[in-house]
Structure prediction request, 275 residues.
Amino acid sequence: MTRRTKRQIVNFLKGLVILAVCVVILFPFLWMVRVSFLNKVDIFEPGNFGAAMTLDNYRSIIASGISLYFANSFVVAVVSTLISLLLGTFAAYGFARYNWKKREDRAFWVLSQKFLPAMAVVIPYFTMASFFKLLDTRSLLVICYTTFNIPFTIWMMRGFIEDLPKELEEAAFVDGCTRLESLRRIVLPLVAPGLVATAIFCIINSWNEFVFANFLTTINAKTVPTSVMMYLSVSGVKWGEMAATGVLAVLPVMIFAISVQKHMVRGLTFGSVKG
Prediction:
């Protein structure tokens, strides 16, 4: 057997292993897609692969007003991401370019806020939101998501900014630029891939968040992930509608991730997690 033949066999076996892993990972999602197209009777017959497909589950959730939940998720995710990028980038620049006492301790404290489980702070958030009459509003979700996205943004953007040579900014200072002008004209254009990568993760985190949206909203500000709770009742679980909601909830994030995949890879290999 020649070396080329051995290499082809090895590559073929590797491909089979990768395919098997992909099938195992995607099987729950594919099963959810299949359930979303089945009638209620056929859902409880797993071996009936010849069951007729139907769009009744999708018609049902659209009639129930799921478009409002999609609008809420979109607005909250986008606004939270923009605010996080604005505040987090300025803070990251301060951590990257200024030296002060216990800077690294402060940086670790900021990052530690990301470690907090949502269930540990949801009750204080509920109490304060009730006091300020913000319950079941998009503004409350934006505040909650922003407080968790900002530490992540600072951690990501600090690494991207630190990778830039300080000499670039010093040259801008010689030309008469202020610190703010240097940040706007020199730093931000150069760390644009990092901004894109950070924005992608912030949007995905905000879109998929469940705990805050479930406990702090009821109707007006309910998001897509929490809408699956509507199909739990004393009469049983509406698996078809729940599966259809899950499919529609996954599709925007999946399409978004595929469309910006190149920017994500470029951003991740550019800065803070390089090497």
